[in-house]
Structures are given as C-alpha cells and as structure tokens.
Design a protein that fits this description.
Chain lengths: 122, 892
C-alpha cells in the first residue's frame, strides 16, 4: 500500500521513461546499451537520441528512480567515460505500477471489444 | 559518411550540446559524446548515407526538445528557491525592493518625460519634415522679427525646397454667445495650415481655401482643450454660431489633442477673418510684419538645403526692396526643425533631471549591493554547503542571479507604480517647458526602459554577490567559527560601495544646492516694483466699438478707461489704480520675451553712422497712476499727469534707467525727443524711472519707454493697489466694469505676487525635484553608512572586547568607529567634488548668478553629508563602546 502511494505521484510515465526503466529491469546498463536495448525490444519503433536519453536519465535520477551503479565491469571491458545505471527500489515499483496501469487500460479496451483479433485466428 | 568526417561531426555534436545548461553538460557531456560516437559507428556499418541523415535528424530533434526543458527545470527550481529565500528574509527583501523601487521609479518617471518630449517623433504626419522660419534682425539683436503678408507670398512662390508654406499669428478677441463674454486666444492661420501639419479634425472639418477668401463667411475651429473645458466636449458643437469682432462665426471643426506652438490657442480662424491681418495696411506693406511661418520640406530635402534656399530668397528680397530691409537692421532668415523649436527650452532641464535620476539609481544599486553583500556574509555557510553538495559555480551564479532578478523585478514593478503616480505632477511641470507636455505617458518605450534597468540592476548586484561568493566560499567551511563572515576583500568592497554612494549623493546634493541657491538669489533680486497687494485684471473691451490707438475711436476707449479708473478709485479699500498695455511678470509677456514688445526708434538730432543699428526699446502704454500703483521709483523729471493727453502740445514719454544709461550715459536726456514712427510724431522725454524686471527676475531689465494711455489708448490690464487682500475685491471690480459695459471680457485675474511667484515656477520645480532626489539619496546613503558601520562593529565585537580588556576607554572606541565613518565620507566627498566639477556644464545654463563651483554650496553640502554620516556612525559607535569585555571574552 505504502509502496503504491510512493509511486503514484510519478505516474503516468512518458513512453521514453517507461522504456528506459524497462531496459534497466534486468540489470544495470550504460547509456548506449539502454538505447540499443530499447531499439531492439521495440523493433526500432522507439528510437532514443542521445539528448532524449540523457534528459530522461537526468530526470529519473533526480526523482530517485534510477541511480548510478557503484560496481563496474572488469577493467578490460570497462570504458571509464561510461556510467552504469541501475533501477532503484522506487524505480522498480514505479515501473510495476505503470505496467499495471497499462494492463488495466488494455483490459478496459478488450471489455469494449476495442482490439484486433490476431491474424492467425481469422 | 567517411571516417574523415568523424572528428568533424563530433565537433558539430559538441557544439549542439552547448545548447544544454552548463550543469547538465558537466554531468553528461562525456557520456553523450560516447553514445553518439557508437551510434555513428553503427550507422557506418549498416545504414550508409540515409542512416546518417536519420541519426542527425533524431539527434538534433532530441537536443532541441531536451534543452528548453532542462533550462526551464533549473529556472523553476531556482525561482522557487529564490522565493523561499526572499520570504525568509522579509526585512532584507522589503528594504531592497523599496530602495530599487525608488531608484527605478524615479528613472521611469523622468524617462517617460524625456521619451515623450525629446525622443518621440512629433505627433504630426512626417513631423521631421516640418520647419519653422525665423526672420531675424541680427544687428538690433531681435531674433524674431516675424513676416509680412507680402514676404510670406514671396517665400511661397520663390522657394525650391518646400512642399508647403503656411502662416500663423495669434491674437485675443472677445467671443460672445456662451455665458459671459470670453476673451479667446485665437490662432489666425492659412487655409491649408492643418493640412500642412497633417492634423485631421476630431469633429467636423478644418479650413478650406474658400474660407480664406476675403468676405467669406467667418468660421472657427476649436482647440481640443477649449472644446473640452468650455463646452464640456459637446458633440453637437459643429454648426453652432458665436459673435466675434461684430461678425457671426460658425464652428466647423474641433482639433484632436495636439501640441500647439508657439501659443496654446482656444480657437483658430482663417486669415481673412482677422480684422488686422485683412486690413489694407497689412496686405500692402512689406514691412508690416506680424506673422510666423511654418513650412514642410519636400521629401528627401535636408534642413541645410532648405536653410540655404530661404537665405537666398531673403538676400534677393533685400536687393529688390532695400527700403523694406534697411541694412542697419541686419535682416536674415533661418529655419529650424519644428521638433527643435518645441523642445529646445526643455532639453537642458530634462537632461539634468535624467542625470540626477541616474545618480539616484546608482545610489540605490550600491545600497542594495551592499545589503546583498552583508546578507551573503550570513549565507556564506549555506552556499558553501551547496557547493560541497555538488552545485557548480555557474549553477550558484544562476541561483544568485535569479534571486537578484526577482528582487529587481519586484522593485521595477513597484517603481512603475510610483512613476505612474507622479506622472500628473511631472506633466504639469513639463508644461512650463514645452507644448509637448500633454503627450507624456507611460508607454511601451518606458516599459522597455524600466525592464532594461531592472535587468541591468539585477545583473549588477547578482554578479556582485556571486563575485563575493567566489572569494570566500573556499575558506568559509574551514573557518566555521565566524558567524558573520566577511573577509578583508569583502569589507573593502562594501566600503567602496559606500564611498560610491556618498560620492553620488554629494553630486546630487550639489545639484540641488546650486538650484536652491540660485532660486534664493532670484528671490533676493529687487524687481523694481512693489508686488504686494496688487490685483491685475485683463479687461478686453469690444475693440470694434471703441477702437484703439490714436484713431478717432481711440478717444472713446480713453474715456471708458478714465471713467473706469475713477469708479475703481472710489471703491473703499482701493489705494490707487491704473490701466496698462502690460505689467511686470505677466505670464504671456514673459513667454514672448522683450523682443515681442520692442520697437526701433530714432533720437532727434542724432544721425546713425553707416550700417549703425537704430536703437530699440520696449514700449508700454500706461495711465498716469501706473508708477504709483506699482511703486516704481521716479529718478528725475516728472511722472504723467491727467493733462498728458492727445490735446497737449507736447507728447511726453518716460524712460527707464537702462534706456537712459544705454543712450545718454553721460548726459541728462530730459527734454530730448524721440520718434517711433519714422519722424511723423515726436515725444519728449519728461522723466526717468527705476528699472523693473518685467520679463522675469532672472532677466536683466530691458530698456523701456512709457507712453501715456491718453495719447495712445489701448485695451489692456487694470491694475489695482488695495489696502486689503486684492483677490477679495475682484468680484466687486468686475461688477463695476460690467456695469459700464456688460460686453467687456474680464479675464486673467491674478495678483502681482502670484504672477511673480509663477514666473519662477520652472526653476522652483526643478529645484524641488532635484531636492527630492538629493533628499532620497541622502537618506539611502546615510542608512547605508549606518548599516555598514553597525556590521563592522558586530564583526569586531571580539577585537573591541579585547582592546577594552587591555584598557582602551569607551571614548577611544567611539572615536575609532567615528573615525572610520569619517574616512569613508571624506573619500566619498573627494570623489564627489571631482564628479560635480566634471558635470558642472550640465547645470550651468539653469543657474542664476551662482557659479557652478559655488564655494558656499560645496562646503555646505560637505558639512551636511559629513554630519549625516557621523550621526549614522554614532549609533554603532555607542554600541561598540558599550561592549562588555568580560562577557565577550567569556563567550570566546
């Protein structure tokens, strides 16, 4: 209940923010990796530019939804200019809350028959 | 995109990043560059040219959407932080906002006058093309000889540079048909006069060429002010008829509110309706000059070309009609822009006031900067903590600038309210200097000006605060112990600001002091008349009934005058009475100056050398008791008597001492004869009277000749010396006048004291305004000194405590603190003296018999400023002396 209340003021998220949080859900990443992951997962439908990415990272960091990770990869793989970001507890809660919000919206749409049937079923 | 392009595109990307806020870049720039590099590598591998185009498109769009959002975020947080900070310090905020409001308000107010009067184009169509022609008599020192009908026609026909030439003169007539007979100031103008200025009527029409034909039905156009004040803005006024000069006049139009020059007229009529302008004499004689001339230069023609053009015509006329242009007068024609004519009188005063206002702002800024520095000292720890927590330097500067801007904008807004409140007063003030005063308003220009000074001040004192924060932040966390900070450099800067305030206050006080001294000197001047308890009333008879001058009808007027004086003198409370063509300090006479009432004359038995200018003097036509009524002293000879009339064998004339000293410096002129009509008639000098400062106390007495009313009857002003309050008798005397002829207009009722007071209105108002500015400056600067000394004492409580523990007496401590205050004042005054001397040319033209380096003013101001500063330092000094050494040391 408390967690829900904490995440409420941050909802709804912008699509870019949601995608970034989603990209960090399975582990910490640096900026370029986030960008690649988002593009891959959405089949290039959501393409973040450097400006949009870091504008959103700054905002998420300020809101406490992500944080810079203290751990870094092995020295041989590391580029010291890179920073790695991880999801915070709040970030995870907000992402879940946003996903639930979307799910509910989808449920309402289905209840009103506002969806396309899968092509195979035709 | 080839590999060679990589560094180039990185540079371009880095340039794009500069659009983002500094702090954002500091945080993310390296990463963003790395990401962009990797994106480029991807594109090179897969996308080729169109992939690169797409990447750039997305990148640019991303930066352009992110940058404004980031800037806005920072501004928002700074703004709410600034709001919290200023709410936390209501005292500081109030003082700073009020000080700036005074500084900015004074500037906005004065600037609104300067902008409306000096900077804005004239409210006429292409006002810059309008010029005013002036015929001068250079050799007799007359700068406005006016033009005759024939001359105007010649300038109209012979010029090559002018698109239009119109004439103007102003006369007073009596208007019947609306309540009491009204004496109206009438502009007599060419039919195309208003077209030349591009003035469209507000109601009805202006004049048509047909209106100017001799014998055309008489028509009138009302000025906006007269229509408003006398007819209550009657929308049905067009077509109404009034009687003037025994003719029916129909109102055909009403003017919009426009500046009227050279006179503010009540009504306008075409030239043909003016009985004087339409007289045979005026039409036929080239040397009957009465009219002013306005013209519009053709588009693209310079003022210089127009000047050369009219000068050529003047030279040609001089050759063609030598008898109308005697060489010893030195006829010449010059042209000036109308804008210059309308504003040149106001310019020096307005510039002095603008400079004074700038000084007030300077003092206000220095004071707020000082307050801010003192507050920064208290906020040092807060700022140091913020820096330690990662706020960049530029971020801090931005924060401080936001705070200072907020205060400056609050000050600016309040300043505008103050300026708006003072506008009516300023308009009345400016109306004495320029006909453009009615245009004064707070417009966009003034708003922009206010915005600019608000931004300027906020940048100045915001940067100062930030500058100080750079000096001290590093040390403040380490020191920790000092609750009220302020290192050596900071206190030096505060002292410098105080010195600056004192210097600026000194300059302002000098300006105000010089004006006051000059006003005082002016008041000390002996006017040559006794102004107490004299009533002046303009009595305008219907001239067409009584006639005037030496014409047969003039005798009727003479009888009326005589009769009137007998009745008035019989009134209880009247000591003496006289009729005169003009009187000392008469407002309209002062406005026109001596040249307007001067004429040349000749002295019997004295021939002029070749090229020698004839003598000129002002003439006044007075009844016998004029001198007694005004208390003008008889020096030698005799005054006029009742027997001095047109039937007497000798026409007497009385001259003043200035005229005597100019023409007969070493001989007695009594019995000498002069003629003002080319020798047709001669008048004998019978007496010499004392000089009168008729044209204002700051004008040297003009040469003057008095002619008896009975010889040259003219309507004019009734002067009454009373034993009681003169104004209390005006009703009774008006009743007497109307009993004799109800169609006589009685106007311009004023006491001589009032007229004298009014004649000094412009210098007095300037002195008052400068005095207010200087007073504000003195208060702000004194409070500033008090503040800085108090701060300095509270910073050194420990040191003072130790010194007292070591045996220093309280009086020593007081002396030391006062000494420090004295040092600041001394330095400020020294710089102020240099500043005042550097600016003395600015005020020179406004001063009367006071040199701009007046020692009394300089030393007086120095004493006042020092006394104020010492007084302000005395309170903290007493506090310092009251420090208890035991307590201070124990607290350590």
């Amino acid at each position: 209940m408390t967690k829900q209340r904490e995440s409420e003021p941050h909802l709804p998220l912008t699509p870019a923010m949601f995608q970034i949080l989603l990209a960090l859900a399975d582990g910490e990443k640096h900026g370029y990796a986030i960008l690649k992951e988002v593009a891959r997962r959405t089949s290039d439908k959501v393409r973040l530019s450097a400006g949009t990415l870091y504008g959103n990272l700054a905002r998420l960091e300020a809101a406490g939804m992500i944080a810079e990770s203290a751990s870094r990869p092995a020295a041989s793989l590391d580029d010291e200019r890179r920073r790695y970001y991880r999801l915070t507890e709040l970030g995870r809660e907000v992402t879940i809350a946003e996903a639930e919000r979307m799910e509910e919206a989808v449920r309402h749409a289905r209840a009103k028959n506002l969806f396309r049937k899968p092509k195979l079923a035709q | 995109m080839g590999k060679n392009n990589a560094p180039q595109s990185q540079k371009l990307f880095r340039a794009l990043l500069r659009l983002l806020p500094f702090d954002f870049r500091a945080n993310y720039q390296g990463e963003m560059e790395a990401v962009f590099r990797e994106q480029q590598l991807d594109v090179q591998e897969q996308g080729g040219f169109w992939g690169a185009v797409k990447l750039w498109g997305e990148t640019i769009a991303g930066i352009f959407t992110t940058a404004p959002r980031e800037h806005w975020e920072i501004l928002r947080s700074d703004f709410s932080y600034a709001l919290r900070m200023i709410a936390k310090n209501p005292g500081f905020t109030c003082v700073a906002v009020l000080t700036l409001a005074l500084g900015i308000g004074v500037n906005s107010a004065i600037f609104s006058v300067v902008h409306s009067v000096l900077l804005r184009p004239l409210p006429y169509a292409q006002g810059e093309q309008l010029i005013f022609l002036r015929q001068e008599g250079k050799k007799i020192g007359n700068d406005d000889m006016a033009f005759s009908v024939k001359e105007i026609q010649d300038y109209r026909d012979q010029n090559h540079t002018l698109a239009g030439v119109v004439e103007y003169h102003s006369m007073s007539f009596t208007l019947f048909g609306h309540g009491d007979p009204d004496r109206v100031r009438t502009g007599v103008v060419s039919a195309n006069y208003f077209d030349l200025f591009g003035i469209k009527p507000m109601l009805g029409r202006t004049f048509l060429p047909a209106d100017e034909q001799l014998g055309a039905p008489a028509v009138l156009v009302l000025s906006n002010e007269y229509w408003k004040n006398v007819f209550g803005s009657d929308p049905e006024i067009i077509g109404k008829t009034f009687e003037m000069n025994d003719r029916v006049h129909t109102v055909v139009g009403v003017l919009p509110p426009v500046p009227q020059y050279p006179n503010e007229n009540d009504v306008y009529m075409p030239t043909s309706a003016c009985p004087f302008r339409a007289s045979k004499d005026m039409l036929e004689h080239r040397d009957h000059r009465m009219m002013e001339v306005f013209a519009r230069v053709k588009p693209g023609v310079s003022l210089e070309a127009a000047r050369a053009d009219v000068a050529t015509i003047a030279a040609n006329l001089g050759r063609a009609y030598p008898e109308a242009y005697p060489e010893n007068i030195g006829y010449a024609v010059d042209a000036n822009r109308l804008q210059h004519e309308l504003t040149h009188q106001a310019r020096p005063t307005l510039l002095v006031l603008l400079a004074a206002a700038a000084f007030v702002l300077l003092i206000a800024c220095a004071n707020v900067a000082n307050l801010t520095l003192a507050r920064m000292a208290r906020r040092e720890r807060e700022l140091a903590v913020r820096t330690a927590l990662g706020a960049g330097r530029s971020r801090l500067l931005r924060q401080l600038l936001t705070e200072s801007s907020l205060i400056a904008f609050l000050g600016g807004a309040l300043g505008l309210v103050l300026a708006n409140g003072s506008l009516e007063l300023l308009t009345r003030f400016a109306a004495r200097l320029t006909p453009r005063a009615h245009e004064i308003q707070l417009d966009t220009g003034v708003l922009l000006f206010t915005l600019a000074i608000a931004v300027g001040t906020s940048v100045v004192f915001g940067t100062l605060s930030a500058l100080f924060s750079r000096v001290n932040l590093n040390s403040s966390l380490k020191e920790g112990s000092s609750p009220v900070g302020g290192g050596y450099r900071q206190s030096r800067m505060r002292s410098a600001l105080i010195v600056c305030q004192i210097a600026a206050s000194f300059v302002l006080l000098i300006g105000a002091g010089l004006m006051l001294r000059s006003l005082f000197k002016m008041q000390q001047v002996n006017p040559g008349v006794v102004t107490q308890r004299v009533l002046a009333m303009r009595t305008t008879y219907n001239w067409s009934k009584y006639g005037m001058g030496t014409a047969p009808g003039g005798q009727k007027l003479n009888l009326v005058n005589k009769n009137l004086l007998e009745h008035v003198k019989a009134e209880p409370g009247v000591l003496s009475a006289a009729v005169t063509s003009r009187f000392p300090f008469e407002p309209e006479i002062i406005q026109g100056g001596p040249a307007n009432v001067s004429a040349k004359f000749q002295i019997q038995g004295r021939t002029l050398g070749p090229g020698e200018a004839p003598p000129t003097t002002t003439f006044a036509i007075v009844s016998p008791d004029y001198f007694r009524t005004l208390g003008i002293a008889l020096k030698t000879g005799r005054l006029f008597t009742e027997q001095d009339d047109s039937k007497a064998s000798v026409i007497p004339v009385i001259i003043n001492e200035t005229l005597k000293n100019r023409l007969w410096p070493n001989e007695d002129p009594i019995g000498r004869r002069i003629s003002a009509d080319g020798g047709a008639s001669w008048a004998t000098i019978v007496g010499i009277v004392g000089d009168v400062r008729e044209f204002g106390l700051d004008h040297p007495p003009a040469p003057e000749a008095y002619v008896p009313q009975a010889v040259q009857a003219q309507p004019g002003t009734l002067l009454v010396r009373t034993a009681v309050d003169p104004l209390s008798m005006s009703k009774e005397i008006t009743r007497l006048i109307h009993e004799m002829d109800p169609r006589t207009a009685v106007t311009h009722v004023i006491t001589l004291d009032q007229a004298r007071y009014e004649s000094m209105a412009s210098p007095r108002l300037t002195a008052n305004l400068l005095g207010i500015f200087a007073g504000l400056a003195l208060i702000i600067a004194t409070a500033g000194i008090g503040g800085i000394m108090a701060l300095s004492v509270s910073q050194r409580v420990r040191e003072i405590g130790i010194r007292m523990a070591l045996g220093a007496a309280p009086s020593n401590i007081i002396r030391q603190v006062l000494g420090e205050g004295f040092l600041l004042v001394g330095l400020g005054i020294a710089i102020g003296v240099v500043g005042a001397l550097a600016l003395m040319n600015l005020v020179k033209s406004l001063l009367f018999e006071v040199p701009p380096t007046d020692v009394i003013t300089f030393s007086g101001v120095a004493v006042v400023l020092t006394a104020a500063a010492l007084f302000a330092s005395y309170v903290p000094a007493r506090r310092a002396a009251a420090v208890d050494p035991n307590q201070t040391l124990r607290a350590e």
